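ARCHIVE CARD
Drawer: 12
Card no.: 0347
Subject: one protein chain, sequence and derived structure
Cross-reference: see card 0346
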Amino acid sequence: MLAALGFTRGVKFVAILGLGALLVGLAWLCLFTVGEGEFAVVTQFGRPVRVESTPGLKLKRPAPFQTVTRFDRRLFALVPSPREFLTLGKQSVVATGVILWRVHDPEKFMQTVFDRVGAESRLGDILFAELGAALGGAPFAAFVSTAPGEYRAEAVLAGMTRQYRELALRDYGIDVVDVRLRRLDFPEQNRASVFARMKSERIRISMQYRSEGEEEGLKIRAAAEKAKSGILGEAYKLSQQVRGEGEARAAKIYAESLTQAPNFYRFVRSIDAMKKTVDKETTMVLPVDSELFQLLRDSRFRFPEH
């Protein structure tokens, strides 16, 4: 009887363990978790039935009735390989861009591109199609130019990015955050000729600036010479006026002096003339009654006033 009782207990224990294992297996098949940085798409026989976007523990039917496919919801950066394009002026250029994208509609994303590899392949194709249209509809100067009126790369890229974003979101459920032009260059075989043209253009511009500078310099020098001539003429006129006034005043003084003491004035003039004509080696013989001899002999001698 004790053996039968022990056997019954063993069977119950095994049954409980089996039931527990079955419940754990069902829980593992029916429960799943959604992380913070991912989407979970629940599919039933390959057809999406719902999308779980909030993190936490979720419930589904056991496989193979329902399965879970996960997609990363973080931001991705795609840098496609460069390709060759033609501008509006039939100029060959090599260009590529940078695409920042993320999954926006997981259900459509799964149905169209399925995974990241397929998504980046489609995004690269769309980028080169839109970039080729943008480059083909604008001259090369719109992307590389020093003239403010010609450069409009931002406007062209903004229009391309808007169309690119609408197409990716509508057809593939992808949110394109931004598109940037990463490289715009000439093909290797065309660089030498392009650089030669750029060099000749810069030489032409420098010669034009130099000639304009020389012309402006000539104008400035001519204006300076004209101003100089005017200033010198005015100065000469003023100097002649001052000189005339001085000579008139000197003549007046001479006249007044001549009127007051004509003999002394005549004597002083004679002395000045003698200073200019007689040097230190000259010997003079003066008569006794001469005024100069009397002045040398008697210091109290005075010339007559009249």
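Annotation on reverse: The longest helix spans residues 191-260. Residues 13-71 form one domain.
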